[in-house]
Specification:
Blueprint: H1 3-16, H2 39-44, H3 57-60, H4 84-105, H5 112-133
Helix pairs in contact: 4-5
Length: 149
């Protein structure tokens, strides 16, 4: 037999057994045996794993109030205020293009120095924010700088 004929025979067997059901005994049970709940656990509680014996039976049975069903995160900390240079950079970054857009929509006269100032404010704000961003670890991070690749 040639390798090609062996391969053809294997494909014929696969196609012939395509619609057959599995004869595996574990097909009835979709989880491993080690996760089965013992008979003692079903007699003591409701049979669900993870039930805490210190909780009342009413909470274990799922009769807790609906207020306990969802997570309410704590309020977030306030945003940092930022220094004057950072705030001025953000104003310049958004203010320059906003002024040009507003002037174009309202057909205000735009002289050359006004356009130059708006574009320069945008570029200066962007450059200032990038330069002040920093690429090192925070000063309070300690001696260990983590994983270095």
């Amino acid at each position: 037999m040639t390798p090609q004929s062996d391969e053809d025979e294997v494909w014929r067997q696969i196609v012939a057994s395509f619609n057959e059901t599995a004869e595996d005994a574990s097909a009835e049970q979709p989880w491993p045996d080690r996760e089965n709940v013992s008979d003692e656990a079903t007699e003591e509680g409701d049979g669900e794993p993870g039930g805490d014996a210190s909780e009342p039976a009413s909470e274990q049975a799922g009769t807790a109030s609906e207020d306990d069903d969802h997570y309410v995160p704590p309020p977030p900390p306030p945003l940092p205020r930022g220094d004057a240079i950072t705030r001025a950079s953000w104003v310049a970054l958004f203010g320059g293009p906003a002024y040009l857009l507003l002037a174009a929509l309202l057909t205000w006269p735009m002289e050359g120095w006004i356009v130059f100032t708006a574009v320069a404010a945008f570029i200066a704000g962007f450059v200032t924010l990038v330069v002040r961003m920093g690429d090192g670890p925070p000063p309070d991070s300690g001696w260990d700088d983590g994983a270095v690749i």
